[in-house]
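User: Modeling request: complex.
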Amino acid sequence: MKNLEEISEIITKLKSKEEVCSFLLELLTDSEVIDISKRWRILKMLSCGSTQREISSELKVSLCKVTRGAKIIKDKNAIITKYLKGV
Amino acid sequence: MKNLEEISEIITKLKSKEEVCSFLLELLTDSEVIDISKRWRILKMLSCGSTQREISSELKVSLCKVTRGAKIIKDKNAIITKYLKGV
DNA sequence: TAACATGTTTCTATTAATAGAAACAAAATA
DNA sequence: TATTTTGTTTCTATTAATAGAAACATGTTA
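Assistant: Request completed. Predicted assembly structure:
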């Protein structure tokens, strides 16, 4: 996982969210950006209490994909879980 | 691109590279982590002057994939380009 | 308890991503 | 200039990811 650590280290050195966003857009492929964005919406809707079937039909993703996202939310120690509230 | 901006904003709030790394591991799928890590190695080897064919055979990726990575490097304004030197 | 809504998993056909090969372009070198 | 190396693009067969459906599990409510 050394590569991801290096990437993480660079990200921490970036000053603004605009720089982080630019960095991610450079590093990620278009389809990855689309996938990750959709996953983010899934996590937010789960966090807001939407049912998995609502999310599935609204975001047009399969149920199994939503369930996968739900596993992150269930981990109370997950960093994402803490920050989802504030968005 | 609003979702990626939100993600970027949260990332800027994280204190350490360890937290950023954990956040990314939560958000990304296993195959995305593998792909991105490999892409990172491609960028580093390009930055060090390796030829595309060397990179292709050493990392076992197709040439067209390396060429795609090379396009990032060629953009002198890219944020990634600046930081690749220091790694 | 029965009926219903929701979460989760598994399966398969479909779609998207990729490798590998090949061809061509561009650059370097002799 | 001719030759070689390297970069880039295109093509197709193969592989991996996904949706959608279905089935089952787990609540939840009347």
